Each structure stands twice: as C-alpha cells, then as structure tokens.
Amino acid sequence: MSKAFTKETETDDEDDLGDDTPALPAGTRNYMTQAGFEALRREYRELLHVERPKIVEVVAWAAGNGDRSENGDYLYGKKKLREIDRRVRFLSKRLEIAEVVDPARRTNFDQVFFGATVTYAREDDSEHTITIVGIDEADVDKGQVSWISPIARALHKARVGDTVDIRTPTGKETIEVLKIVYEGAGG
C-alpha cells in the first residue's frame, strides 16, 4: 500500500492545537502578565529542548527496526512529534506577538483593566473573585479569566460600587463591583 494512503493528515493551522486554547481576536495584541509570559516560555523551551529530542531519539531507534508500517513505536513517535512541532510553532508565534502588561504600573487603580483582581456580588448575594489575565493564561478553576471573556468585557472600566450587566447561559445578570486590587500595587 502506498504511503500516501497511510499517512495521517497534518494541518498548518496554528490554532488547531488539540486543546482549548482560543484564537486571538483579529487585530488585537496578545496581552499577558509577566508570569503568563514566563510560563509559555518555559513550556516552549521544555518542548523544544527536552521533549522533542526524546521523541526524535525514539523515532530514530524505531525506524532502525525495519518495517515501519506496523511499528507502533515509530507510528506513535511520529504522531507525537507532529503534535509537539505544532505546539512549538503555536507557542513561538504567541510569544513573538506577546505584550507583557505590568498591572502595578497603572496610574489609576480604581477602575477595572487588564491585571485587576475583582471581587463582585451576584444577584443571589454570593461573592466571587476573578483576575483578568491573558488568553493563554486563563484558568477558570483558579479564578483567572481572559480579558476577552464576557465578564471581563462587562467589568472593563467599572469602579467599586458600579453595577454591570453580563450575559450568562441563563440570561442577563447584574453584578456589583465590591473590590478592585492590582497585584504588587498600592491599590
């Protein structure tokens, strides 16, 4: 059988990562915190200098074992290598266009902008705290939301005491800003 019929398809789409990393909106910058930038850079270096060489070694060993069509180590290794290469390309592009924002350098700490940690009250009087971060560093389980998320957009430029409307899966909800803090700042 021809290799043309057995090869897995590859895609050059930098946003097709097999994970939940969203695409940047057209015409926007890749804002990130310093910690988020460092985390992406660590991942990039780990993949490029540790993980990729390990997989290349396995693939080279497996290729030397003869018939590659039924060689699981070879086939899995090649697939893993494509995944790593795709992620490295993605990270490289994201790091290249990254704009690190230091929230502590803000001059007004009484409004919600990138990097703010905001405590708000919902209509049921429950309080929640979120930190507005870059797209690549958002982690809802840790209370970190992307600056392009609906709640971050709704809170943008709000002050303590302001109420804002957000759209939720169950409809519109009004929340009240209780507290705004910028890490490392006197705010």
Q: Layout of SSEs?
A:
Layout: H1 3-6, E1 30-32, H2 34-63, H3 72-96, E2 98-100, E3 116-121, E4 127-133, E5 144-146, H4 150-155, E6 163-168, E7 171-182
Parallel strand pairs: 1-2, 4-5
Antiparallel strand pairs: 3-4, 3-7, 6-7
Helix pairs in contact: 2-3
Could you explain the architecture of this structure?
With about 190 residues, this protein is an alpha/beta fold. It has 4 helices and 7 strands; from the N terminus they run H-E-H-H-E-E-E-E-H-E-E. The longest helix has 30 residues, at about 35-65.
Strand content: 15-25%
CATH topology of the largest domain: Chitinase A, domain 3
Query: Treating each run of at least 4 consecutive H or I residues as one helix, how many helices?
Result: 4
Structural class: alpha/beta
Write a brief caption for the model.
This protein has 187 residues and is of the alpha/beta class. It is built from 4 helices and 7 strands; from the N terminus they run αβααββββαββ. The strands form 2 sheets. Strands 5-4-3-7-6 form a 5-stranded mixed β-sheet. It has a two-stranded parallel ribbon with strand order 1-2.
Which terms would index this structure?
single chain; 187 residues; alpha/beta; Helix Hairpins; Chitinase A, domain 3; 2 domains; 5-stranded mixed β-sheet; two-stranded parallel ribbon; 7 strands
